[in-house]
């Protein structure tokens, strides 16, 4: 058994390896909460990278050299581990009674993850929505597509020159097969209490939410935290209606101020804003408590826990991302200018990065 990497003076411990193997070695009832963003097992990833001859495209954000398991060169990113009962059973075992699980997932596979977590013993307490202003649908108008499928080379030159003229084109050309992705879900589940909520808090120190520490501050006061979060982008803000005073009601829903430091030089395709992760960590833990992330990725949960005065136990199977995490933790102690210089220096000689998971979908 390899000892975990000690980061930030022991405040963050990084375990290298498969999360199921590592969690099996952790003591039961020893972790206060789990905040994680695991692999989503998106159907479009399987379709785009599932063939044996899916080629690398130098100008494409997503590329593969062979099978789906090589998406971004990382098999774990497209695996179905978050849909497995044994995954969440392992998390449930190490959490203290009343400990919260906050787990991101995309809209389509979310239900599978939620059901797996419930079968593992968790109780669903809520589902948070994270609204963001990036990403585009990959669908395309269906008219010409259907013409090609139905008629093939049967269209004559005049028809081709005029464009879609068939009934199918006329009827379907304004239709599509996808909506713009603008939301991820966050499962909020809790390990069953040991007695009443009061008894559980006294014995284990977890089970309740730190709502006052997570209130949404705005010009007219503060609001009770809701289960809707957003990224503060102009696109998302415009979707919220105005109140009687002409101000957007978006101010009543918490949003982080994301910046370039969120990625911290990592090539991981699903990096979340540090401010978002800090808010989530703050919501389900108290200072000095410990947060688990079995799919550590770029290490944002670890940095968030450290910045909130918590500890973190991170698990990451991929050597590249382990290095990213170590770099992120070192940058935690750097000033803004030094941090930026180190990120630029580290990235200068690196190849093309995959970018956001949702970009171009």
- Helices and strands: which structural class? alpha/beta
Global mean pLDDT = 76
CATH architecture title of the largest domain: 3-Layer(aba) Sandwich
Order of helices and strands: EEHEHHHEHEHHHEHEEEHHEHEHH
Amino- and carboxy-terminal Cα gap: 40 Å
Choose one word for the global shape: globular
CATH topology of the largest domain: Rossmann fold
Radius of gyration, whole Å: 23 Å
β-strand number: 11
Record the strand order, biggest sheet: 1-2-11-10-3-4-6-5-9
Question: Given the structure, what is the number of helices?
Answer: 14
As an assembly, this protein is: single chain
Q: Which CATH class of the largest domain applies here? A: Alpha Beta
Helix content, binned percent: 25-40%
Main beta sheet: strand number and arrangement? 9 strands, mixed
Topology:
Blueprint: E1 5-7, E2 12-16, H1 19-25, E3 31-36, H2 43-49, H3 75-78, H4 85-94, E4 95-105, H5 107-119, E5 123-131, H6 142-151, H7 157-162, H8 167-172, E6 183-190, H9 197-204, E7 216-218, E8 221-223, E9 228-230, H10 234-239, H11 274-284, E10 290-293, H12 300-307, E11 311-316, H13 319-332, H14 336-348
Helix pairs in contact: 1-4, 4-5, 11-12
List keywords for this structure.
two-stranded antiparallel ribbon, Rossmann fold, 11 strands, 361 residues, 17% strand, 34% helix, alpha/beta, nine-stranded mixed beta sheet, 14 helices
Task: Summarize the structure in words.
- This protein is of the alpha/beta class.
- It has 2 domains: 5-41 and 79-139 and 179-348, 3-Layer(aba) Sandwich (Rossmann fold), CATH 3.40.50.150; 140-177, no CATH class.
- Helix content is 34%, strand content 17%.
- It has helices spanning 19-25, 43-49, 75-78, 85-94, 107-119, 142-151, 157-162, 167-172, 197-204, 234-239, 274-284, 300-307, 319-332, 336-348; strands at residues 5-7, 12-16, 31-36, 95-105, 123-131, 183-190, 216-218, 221-223, 228-230, 290-293, 311-316.
- The strands form 2 sheets. The chain has a 9-stranded mixed β-sheet with strand order 1-2-11-10-3-4-6-5-9. A two-stranded antiparallel ribbon has the order 7-8.
- The model is unreliable at 48-73 and 344-361 (pLDDT under 50).
